[in-house]
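User: Show me a protein chain along with its predicted structure.
Assistant: Here is one chain, sequence first, then structure tokens.
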Amino acid sequence: MSRNFKPWRLLRLVEFLVVLIATTLLISVSDGLNSEGKYLLEFKKGLQDKFNFLGNWKSTDQTPCGWKGVNCTSSGYESIVWSLDLKSMNLSGILSPSIGGLIHLTYLDLSYNEFKGEIPTVITNCSRLTFFYLGANQLSGPIPKKIGDLSWLQVFGAHDNRLTGTLPRSIGNLQKLTKFQVAGNAISGNIPAEICGCQSLQYLGLDHNRIGGEIPKEIGLLGNLTDLGLSNNFLVGQIPMEIGNCSNLE
């Protein structure tokens, strides 16, 4: 052994390495679950999951990307949640406003469960939302007034709930909307003339509600319309001649 060998130097090197490894592990652990995972766990708190479908949603994970119903994609150096599909999982409870934190969400399917309460108004924070399914639940209250802020929305399905209130005038901002299905609720008021702004609309399902007034002639401007459901409402007056312009109606 070299005469210059100093045991205390080796001891200090070992101590340094131990501290370095411990610090690295501590930082890794303290990072914990990312923000979208935390929003989802907060969302889960408002639910009753009697069959434990969401049993693998754990705070000890780094991301929610392996969780049941959660789909991610890569964006730069991070993974983001683009889809949440909880359809037909026998879930009940309320929809937590934390859902509004999933700002990258493009697909959301909560249909065929037993959710109650209102649609969170903060859902409009999910500005990239394209497909939004809420059908066959027990949701109440109005459709969010600012639903028109979801400029990428193509499909909105909320049939067979207990929704009330009127159809938001902001619906006219949804130029990409192809399907709007809210049959089987208790929506009242008139059909807003602004609906003519939905130039991509193919399916308009308003059956079995409490909608009154006259059918607006502006519906005749929806040239892509193929399906129009208005039965079992409180509509009055005549069918406007302008509907004849919807030459694709079946």
